[in-house]
C-alpha cells in the first residue's frame, strides 16, 4: 500500500531584512552633517576675519587712497613710516601701560571684590549691582558721561569746589600729565564688573570641602583664600588676563569718545591712531592694523602655548 504525504501550506518568507548602509554612505552622511553644522560658521569666519586681514595685508604694501585700483606699490614703506613715527610708538606705549596697570590693579581688585561678594553679607546684592551696571552700559554712553563729569565745568570740579578742595580742580582729560591715568580710572570703573563676574564664576568651582577643612584646622579666612582659593582660581585668572590684554590692545571706543587720543597723544592707542591717521590713507591705516593684528596674534599664541595647554592638561589629569 502506497502512503501519500500531503504537503503543508507554503510558509511566507516575509519582508527581506534591510541591507546595512555601506561604509561609504555612512561617511558621506557624516561629512554632510559636519558641513551643515560647520559650513555657515566657516563662511562667516572667512568672510569677516580671514578675508579682511588678507586684504589689509595687501593694501598695506600700496600707497592707496581708497579709490580706484591698486597701482603704486611701495613695499614696506608704510610699516617703516609707522614704526618711525613717535606718536605711533607712544600709542604702543600707552597700550602696554594700560595692560600692565590692568594686570596690577584691576586683577587683584577683582579678586578681592569677588571673594568678598562670595561671602554671605548684608548689602551684597546692592554692591553687585553697583559693580556690574557700568559694564552693561554702552561704551559711548559711559564715555560721554565721564567726558561731561570731568570737563572744567563738570560735576567732579563742582563737587571739589563745594567741599572746599577747589585747589584740586583742573581739566582732567586735557592735562597731558594725568590724562592717561584718568582714562585708566574710567576703564577700571567700566570693566571691573566683567573681571569680578569671571572670578565669581571661577569661585563656584572651588571645592567647599577644602575650605571647610582649612577652617577646621584653624586657618583664618584670609589665609584660606590666599593658600587655597586663589591658587585654584589660576585658570580663571589666566583667562581674564588674556582677555584683558587683548582688550587693552584693541582699546578704541572709550578713548575715542572721551579724548580722541588727546591731548597731544597722551591717551592715543594703536586703534585711535589707526583711525585718526588712516583716514584718507587706507594703505597706511592697513599697515597699522596689521601691526596691531600681529601683536595680538603673538600674545594669543603665547597664551595658547604656555597657559591654555597647562590648564587643559591639569583638567585632563583631574578627570583621570
Automatic annotation (TrEMBL):
PROSITE patterns: ABC_TM1. One of its GO terms (biological process) is transmembrane transport. CDD domains: TM_PBP2. Pfam families: BPD_transp_1. The keyword Aminoacyl-tRNA synthetase does not apply. Signal peptide: none annotated. Residues 7-20 have a biased composition (Low complexity). Belongs to the binding-protein-dependent transport system permease family. PANTHER family: ABC TRANSPORTER PERMEASE PROTEIN (PTHR30193), INNER MEMBRANE ABC TRANSPORTER PERMEASE PROTEIN YCJO (PTHR30193:SF37). This is Sugar ABC transporter permease.
